[in-house]
From TrEMBL:
GO terms for molecular function: DNA binding; DNA-binding transcription factor activity. This is Transcriptional regulator, LysR family. Keywords: DNA-binding, Transcription, Transcription regulation. GO terms for cellular component: cytosol. It comes from Cupriavidus pinatubonensis (strain JMP 134 / LMG 1197) (Cupriavidus necator (strain JMP 134)). Residues 3-60 form the HTH lysR-type domain. The keyword Cell division does not apply. Gene3D superfamilies: 3.40.190.290, Winged helix-like DNA-binding domain superfamily/Winged helix DNA-binding domain. It comes from the Bacteria.
Length: 300
């Protein structure tokens, strides 16, 4: 059986219009071409759909029953096409993004606000997760893309660099270290009450390595799982914490000051990851571009 959508559409329109003559212009066909479409459909089905024994147009019993299914099929296809066009033109859609709680509370809100100004009918969902879970959610297809710091290369992902900032130290504003005239170096953290990330984070490994190379003994006063917590403790005057510069820009206040660290300058890079070989939907691609534009402003 080789029933075509064109045949089904012709049958539905003939039934709605009450005959071939009225239906043909709506189908952009001649009357004879319309009649041929119906005959080919009847041949494929092995059923007579239209009663030709009377001069007045009428469906057979089989035709009346088949019309219900044909209308549903044609309607579903037309709705699917309309829905796809809506998505292509970003008039509606849904995006799910995975990122860390810190980025979800700092970088994302303004990016989402700008995006929804342009595309108000698109729904944006945020999965705020520990960094180590983001890749798994991207691979599972639960989210359109993830963004954060992903130090290890992985062929399962396509990566787009978004934001590259040097590491520095957040210091309570009233402390001497905050106003020291010269550039700060890693050895300046010797003897400071350090608010460190937990050992499970890549950030902790990187910071410990730099402190050891600078001859600084690592003996944290606090250990936390999230950068936002570390910044909050620093704001309360409980210690200093090493963070990327974008954290200083996004979470800074008059209670703390961000000072870049030198000798050496160490960078952290935020990247967007997508499952390798996967194309983003038009809506997700538009949000990616909005996020990239926001990061470009921060890079500047």
């Amino acid at each position: 059986m080789n029933v075509t959508l064109r045949q089904l559409r012709a049958f539905v329109e003939v039934a709605r219009s009450g005959g071939f003559t009225a239906a043909a212009p709506k189908l952009h066909l001649t009357q004879s071409a319309t009649s041929l479409q119906i005959r080919e459909l009847e041949s494929q089905l092995g059923l007579q759909l239209i009663d030709r024994s009377t001069r007045r147009f009428a469906l057979t019993d089989a035709g009346s029953e088949f019309l219900i299914s044909a209308m549903r099929i044609v309607g579903d296809v037309e709705q699917s096409v309309a829905d796809t066009r809506e998505l292509v033109h970003k008039r509606r859609g849904r995006i799910t993004v995975a990122t860390t709680p810190l980025l979800a509370s700092t970088l994302l809100p303004e990016s989402i606000a700008h995006f929804l100004d342009a595309y108000p009918a698109i729904t944006v969902r945020i999965a705020d997760l520990p960094a180590e879970q983001i890749g798994r959610r991207v691979l599972s297809g639960d989210v359109d893309f993830g963004f954060g710091v992903f130090p290890e290369e992985d062929p399962q992902f396509d990566r787009i660099p978004l934001l590259r900032h040097p590491l520095g130290v957040m210091v309570p504003s009233s402390w001497p270290l905050a106003t020291r005239k010269r550039d700060l170096v890693w050895s300046d953290l010797e003897g400071q009450p350090l608010i460190a990330m937990s050992h499970a984070t890549g950030m902790r490994t990187l910071i410990d390595q730099q402190l050891h190379q600078a001859g600084v003994q690592v003996n944290p006063r606090f250990e936390v799982a999230y950068l936002g917590t570390a910044v909050g403790l620093a704001e309360a005057g409980l210690g200093v914490t090493v963070v990327p510069a974008y954290v200083g820009k996004l979470m800074g206040s008059d209670r703390v000051r961000f000072r870049p660290l030198h000798k050496p300058v160490v960078h952290r890079q935020i990247e967007l990851i997508v499952r390798a070989g996967r194309s983003l939907s038009p809506s997700a691609a538009a949000f990616r571009d909005c996020l990239a534009a926001r990061c470009k402003m921060l890079n500047g």
